[in-house]
Design brief:
The chain is of the alpha/beta class. Helices cover 35% and strands 23% of the residues. The strands form three sheets. Strands 5-4-3-6-7-11-10 form a seven-stranded mixed sheet, sandwiched between helices. The two termini are 26 Å apart. It binds S-adenosylmethionine. The site of S-adenosylmethionine has 26 residues, from α1, β4 and β6. It holds the Pfam family Methyltransf_11.
Length: 263
């Protein structure tokens, strides 16, 4: 395992504080509509929840967003009648969440913590989810058991992340998928990215073993693809072409089947 484990939480907190304003400037216009319309869209390719139906009806459900960033998702789910809590490591990202709460008038609890150690009792939530959130940056061997612990039996864990296959084609110092194998498949747990963040992933078999050991049954693994868009050019065009041929993103839909101690 890489030497960034142990320091990754501090590194990611500092780095997310630094890049938060740029991240929100770039991404908020795209995902912000969600906060105002309640219409959520998943992942890199903006696939609407109405097509994927990962959550179903959320009205009245207690929902935790792990790595909420500017809370556009949680705000949208609040608009749909859920009781969200937004959790994030970065205080700057949470300031953006607060700003959105002031704009929309929709308020809900915001918590600063790491997904690896969350301040909630066992069985607190019906849904725990993240769209390229905390599970992309926290140690999976700590964050997935935490998510399972705070879910009620029958609850849903849903999250998206970059696919392991994509990650192993990224050359050192690059932030783009290539067409050759460049990184060790069996050493994906925590690795330093070109953008100064520490990312997390696992080989597919290890994800599955981890879910099983936490009492999480796999309902679905979506490997999403972008639609062909001839209007794109340059880098976006080639990223889009890559992802139409090979898996760029995973969205897991997992159901908690057992209570603690019954695994
Ligand atoms: C790519 S952003 C996604 C934010 C949000 N899901 C969105 O759609 O904009 C990832 C978020 O995960 C947060 N994060 C990173 N490591 C975390 C950890 N260990 N625990 C909680 N949040 C974390 C970052 O601060 C950041 O806000």
């Amino acid at each position: 395992m890489s030497d960034v484990v142990g320091t990754h939480v501090r590194t990611n907190r500092e780095r997310w504080n630094e890049i938060s304003d740029d991240y929100q400037r770039f991404n908020a216009p795209r995902i912000r509509g969600q906060a105002f319309t309640g219409d959520v869209a998943w992942g890199l390719w903006g696939l609407p929840e109405s097509e994927l139906n990962i959550f179903g009806d959320v009205a009245g459900l207690d929902v935790l967003e792990m790595g909420c960033g500017g809370s556009q998702w949680s705000t949208a789910l609040a608009r749909r009648g859920a009781n969200p809590v937004g959790l994030d490591l970065s205080e700057r990202q949470l300031q953006h969440s607060l700003r959105l709460q002031r704009e929309t008038g929709l308020t809900f609890p915001l918590v600063q913590a790491s997904a690896e150690e969350v301040p909630f009792a066992d069985g607190s939530f019906h849904i725990v989810f993240a769209d390229h959130g905390a599970f992309s940056f926290a140690d999976p061997l700590r964050a997935i058991p935490e998510a399972a612990r705070i879910l009620r039996v029958g609850g849903l864990l849903a999250f998206s992340h970059i696919s392991p296959l994509y990650e192993i084609t990224v050359e050192a110092g690059s932030d783009r998928a290539g067409r050759k194998l460049a990184r060790d498949y069996f050493d994906l747990r925590m690795f330093a990215d070109a953008d100064g963040l520490v990312s997390a992933n696992l080989p597919y078999g290890e994800w599955i073993g981890l879910f099983r050991s936490c009492g999480l049954a796999i309902e679905d693994l979506l490997e999403t693809r972008p639609k062909d868009d001839p209007a794109l050019s340059g880098r976006q065009r080639s990223d889009n072409e890559w992802a139409r041929r090979w898996p760029s993103e995973c969205i897991w839909r997992l159901r908690k089947t057992t209570s603690q101690g019954e695994r």
